[in-house]
Design brief:
Blueprint (H helix, E strand, L loop, with lengths): L7 E4 L23 H5 L25 E3 L12 H17 L20 E3 L9 H18 L3 E4 L3 E6 L4 H15 L8 E5 L10 H7 L3 H4 E4 L1 H6 L6 E6 L1 H10 L7 E5 L14 H11 L2 E5 L2 E8 L10 H6 L9 E9 L2 E5 L7 E7 L2 E8 L1 E5 L7 H4 L11 E7 L9 E4 L4 E4 L8 E5 L2 E6 L4 E6 L4 E5 L4 H13 L17
Parallel strand pairs: 1-4, 5-6, 5-8, 6-7, 8-9
Antiparallel strand pairs: 2-3, 10-23, 11-12, 11-22, 13-16, 13-20, 14-15, 14-19, 16-17, 17-18, 19-22, 20-21
Length: 501
């Protein structure tokens, strides 16, 4: 089989509302986009043929009013993934000389107010079935294209993530920081490390700055707030650790994710594909020759809280979620939303008894589960909690949702695999004996009381993971064989034929 043809795509990662810069332009200024401009930037806007909306999970109370700006003065996104999607949409629109039935069209049902504001659905749980299908199809198509291309990024600002409590990893972080800041680099990189390392004696900021006075202006520190509000500040991310460190990077960048190159310094290494001993060669190649990016599907999980009702009757979660409902009579309201890379788990938490959990898919009630919990995993998370719960191993490029029960009190519950166009809702019935607890990639553990539920759907913000060049399917099979000893057994001996002499 011949090797795929690689192309160089010069893709400057611009921030805010500025149009993409020409390839030949050299500009290393940091982002000057104001906080309000960034927060109101249009990411992906959909064209809706079907204005049907789901019930309580479709409650748009948390949907922001986004200002429509002149096309010539902005781009619709600050995320390089969605910038590619937008460019492809515009190219197809020009070729077709008409509207494109794809993921970046304006919704016909959106209404503008007197101030010219556009009400656009922000979360994927708010999308119609067709919109969600078009969105996931667009991301999959882009991911397939990126698998045979080499993206040549214009990197100026580098984000470094490591385990701040690990002494060895702090030393590695200092080493790679010094290498990036060195005058031997052709580009004066700006390096961000975690703020807790500023006064860490192992990192020794003062000693690092003594090596060269110019380091002081280019060595900076990040915190959670900077990653949340200004993710477009970073052009490239480097992870030093294991798969847990990569998951933390996904947690920090809830929406826009810079390409993440991960060095294997942990235990397993499903997501960490590069050897730290070769970091100089690896980073030089990545910055000057380009990288191959794998877009990993992430889930969007939203906590929905039941609203208090004055009616004096027994409430039924199944009836509220799939029955008839008036637009002005919402039974639930959204509390918070997380984008996760591995799994959403709803379990019994500290309760001594098992949980009673209702599972819904789109507008249908799937089943009621009596178990310790339910694990809903992405293809990337199939080798994590999903595996321990008896779920299937799944290649990360499969567009699916994996649902597994945790210690179900039945002999007939088997793990199921659903398409990524389904919006799942995992809830606690009103007559449940105890509450349940939800966690997102093992973080942000919250209690779900009777009537509360979690919506789970494919996120429009995939995780951009830098991969080595080569066949990715073969690499995944090798990784599960290496780390999990998949199908490892002694080979059966052959027969030694008896011969009559």
């Amino acid at each position: 089989m011949s090797e795929p043809e690689y192309k160089n795509i010069h893709l400057p990662i611009t921030a805010g509302t500025e149009p993409p810069r020409p390839v030949h332009e050299e500009s290393y200024d940091e982002s000057s986009t104001s906080e309000s401009e960034y927060q109101h930037a249009l990411e992906v806007i959909f064209d809706a043929d079907n204005l049907h909306r789901r019930k309580s999970s479709m409650n748009g109370l948390d949907a922001p009013r986004l200002t429509r700006k002149k096309e010539q003065n902005r781009t619709d996104t600050a995320c390089f993934v969605h910038q590619l999607l937008e460019n492809e949409r515009k190219a197809k629109r020009a070729a077709n000389n008409g509207g494109l039935d794809n993921i970046s069209e304006y919704r016909k049902g959106d209404k503008e107010g007197e101030d010219g504001a556009l009400e656009a659905d922000k979360h994927s749980r708010l999308l119609t079935k067709k919109q969600l299908s078009d969105m996931t199809w667009g991301v999959r198509a882009l991911s397939k294209k990126l698998g045979s291309l080499r993206l040549k990024l214009k990197v100026k600002t580098v984000f470094i993530l490591t385990k701040a409590h690990d002494e060895d990893l702090i030393g590695y972080t200092r080493e790679i920081t010094g290498w990036l800041l060195s005058k031997e680099r052709t580009t004066p990189y700006i390096v961000y490390v975690q703020d807790v390392l500023e006064h860490n004696h192992k990192f020794d900021t003062a000693g690092l700055l003594k090596q060269d006075p110019s380091y002081e202006g280019r060595l900076k520190y990040w915190n959670n707030e900077l990653c949340e509000k200004h993710p477009h500040t970073f052009d490239f991310a480097i992870s030093l650790g294991g798969d847990g460190t990569v998951l933390y990077a996904s947690w920090l960048f809830q929406r826009i994710v810079p390409p993440v190159l991960s060095f294997a310094l942990g235990s397993l290494g499903f997501l960490t594909k590069f050897d730290f001993e070769e970091y100089q060669e690896t980073l030089t190649t990545a910055f000057h020759e380009g990288v191959t990016v794998s877009l990993r599907l992430r889930f969007e999980g939203t906590i929905m809280r039941t609203t208090k009702r004055v009616e004096d009757f027994k409430r039924d979660l199944v009836e509220e979620l799939i029955g008839e409902e008036c637009d002005n009579n919402h039974t639930h309201k959204p509390e918070r939303t997380h984008n996760i890379l591995n799994e959403v788990v709803v379990d019994r938490g500290p309760n001594a008894t098992m949980s009673s959990i209702e599972i819904f898919g789109d507008d249908e009630h799937f089943t009621t589960v009596q178990a310790d919990g339910v694990c809903v995993a992405t293809p990337t998370g199939s080798t994590a909690y999903n595996l321990a719960a008896g779920g299937s191993l799944c290649h990360p490029e499969n567009p699916v949702i994996l649902v597994s029960a945790i210690c179900a009190h039945t002999l007939s519950f088997r793990p199921i695999i659903l398409p990524d166009t389904v919006v799942l809702r995992i809830g606690v019935p009103y007559d449940a004996r105890t509450s349940s607890w939800a966690s997102f990639d093992g973080r942000e553990r919250v209690e779900l009381c009777a009537g509360d539920y979690v919506t789970i759907s494919a996120s429009r913000y995939p995780f951009a993971n830098v991969m080595p060049q080569g066949r990715r399917s073969e690499d995944w099979v090798k990784s599960i064989s290496r780390t999990l000893q998949w199908n490892s057994r002694q080979r059966q001996k052959s027969f030694k034929e008896w011969q009559d002499k």
